[in-house]
Amino acid sequence: MARTGPTTSARRTLLWLGALLIACTLLLGGGVISGAASWAPKLALDLEGGTQMILAPKVEGGAAITEEQLNQAVAIIRQRVDGSGVSEAEITTQGGRNVIVSMPGKPTAETRELIKASANMVFRPVIQVGNGPSVPTESQVPEAQLPVPTAAPANASDDNWIDAALYRTFEATSCVPPVTEAPTEADPAKPMVACEPGTGFKYILGPVEVPGKDIKDASYGLQQGAQGVTTNQWSVNLSFNAEGATKFRDVTQRLHSFYVTDPNNPKSQFAIVLDNQVISAPRSQAVITDGNSSITGNFTEASAKSLADKLKFGALPISFDIQSEEQISATLGGQQLQMGLLAGLIGLLLVVVYSLFQYRALGFVTIASLVVAGGLTYLAIAILGWTENYRLSLAGVAGIIVAIGQTADSFIVYFERIRDELRDGRSLVAAVENGWKRAKRTILASKAVNLLAAVVLYFVAVGNVRGFAFTLGLTAIADLIVVFMFTHPTLQLLARTKFFGEGHTFSGLDPKRLGAVPLYRGAGRIRTPEDAPSVAKGKNAGAAAEAERRQTIAERRLAAKQEQMAGTRGSGSADTAGNDKTEESK
């Protein structure tokens, strides 16, 4: 099987990056066309302004609110606001009595209701179900046909809870426009009539059997099938504490018996009631003994998330009235945003100037990488603003500005590793590959520290500081994507061009300017201090001296051998001359 070369791999990586950018652009473009998204990121309260609501808390029974209850209210309202997808909201107390909620933009009706929702979440069994206008009005029901209890109710699902007065209320209640206003208070020990908004169903419900305070946790996700395979159906997962699990087990035993007899029996349903309105009425298809149940149905992801949030944050012991609601202007305004953007542009310009001065043509790779990183970050923020209602604050802008320098650091580390390899006498192609192996470990370690700091800061901080941490972490991820999928593949391709590969003077990779020449220039020739003065002072000085020493030894041996041979020839000539003289004397 043929191996993929560096050039092919680099081109393939660049194509994947291009596909990622195109996919993000098309996704955001689709949202813009549908009217749900915008090309511009959403701005937070300090840059755009928004809505301020003053909430007056109410405690059941009219008792005075304690500081602990108020602090709990602030914490849970903050969870509700963040859970609804709104970020950069400010939740504070006023005079130890009221709660002030300031959020960017104009909150939706769902968000507004979620914020002021009472903690009066309870679980009531269903006794009877009706559907809007199909149920006769009170005037159409003869007095003789009104229900009359024959005995004391045996359980919360017993029909004997329904008397004539309750049935008249049931008949008179409209759960379709115009909707009858829900009662402000309901006795938990008695039955009640309630509507399920959005469906038009109305219910006669039995007394409370499980209070909302017994809920331990709630979440949502894709439903697991019988074989453990994830399906495409959304479900809501609900768990109770020990006391709630015992109550829920007893209730589901009774309701399940109705389901076994008749799956369509309304008495098999268990209504979840928040603010005296039914938010869900699932059937008990099994006996839940461990306190962990799953609510299934025709959920979308949004509706499953909404129900999970209401279950999770519905156990607040205080309800609220909205005393006032008004639009507020931006606390910082456009001038401060302009100054922040100007600071970012100045920082970017300084990075560009430094890159071109230090790395010459190689600096354009830094500039291109910053452009790609900026585009990727912009698309991510815009998409998150559409899907998660993320809003960019001035603190978030500061996080992006700080990230410019951190992103440039990654390129500098890589470029300097390449230069070190060139100083060692390697070709540019080899220097790019070897330098990348050494640089990527440093880059990964650096970005891991940045991400860790951003995550810790995000979870321990509130308000604008979280915005700073979020953009800091987001840009760190974008930096890694760009370095791995753009900067390195681009240098792999540029290393094979004539301009960079031959070390042009303006390429930033000229071996002579870096003090590097090939280790061996020919047979018997090595680097000399004149050829590479910087090398003689570096780590290759020892290697050059050793090569020179070995060459001197060889030369000495050769000279000694030549001298020995010359001496032998000189001795023979002297003897011959002596013999001639002797003969002459004779």
Describe the structure concisely.
Helices cover 51% and strands 16% of the residues. The chain has helices at residues 6-34, 45-48, 67-83, 109-116, 164-172, 242-261, 301-313, 333-359, 363-387, 394-423, 428-460, 464-494, 498-501, 533-536, 541-585, and strands spanning 50-59, 90-94, 98-104, 121-131, 192-196, 201-205, 210-211, 215-224, 230-240, 270-274, 277-280, 292-296, 318-328, 520-522, 525-526. Helix 9 (363-387) crosses helix 12, helix 10 packs antiparallel against helix 11 and helix 10 packs parallel to helix 12 (464-494).
Plain-language structure description:
- This protein has helices at residues 6-34, 45-48, 67-83, 109-116, 164-172, 242-261, 301-313, 333-359, 363-387, 394-423, 428-460, 464-494, 498-501, 533-536, 541-585; strands at residues 50-59, 90-94, 98-104, 121-131, 192-196, 201-205, 210-211, 215-224, 230-240, 270-274, 277-280, 292-296, 318-328, 520-522, 525-526.
- The longest helix has 45 residues, at 541-585.
- 51% of the residues lie in helices and 16% in strands.
- It starts with 5 loop residues before the first helix and ends with a helix.
- β5 (192-196) and β6 form a beta hairpin.
- It is elongated and about 140 Å long.
- The strands form four sheets. Strands 4, 5, 6, 7, 10 and 11 form a six-stranded antiparallel beta sheet that branches.
- The chain has 15 helices and 15 strands.
- Residues 133-139, 519-540, 542-551 and 571-586 have low confidence and may be disordered.
- It folds into four domains: 49-115, Alpha-Beta Plaits (2-Layer Sandwich); 120-310, no CATH class; 332-501, Multidrug efflux transporter AcrB transmembrane fold, CATH 1.20.1640; 522-567.
- α10 runs parallel beside α12 (464-494).
- With 586 residues, the chain is α+β, with helices and mostly antiparallel strands.
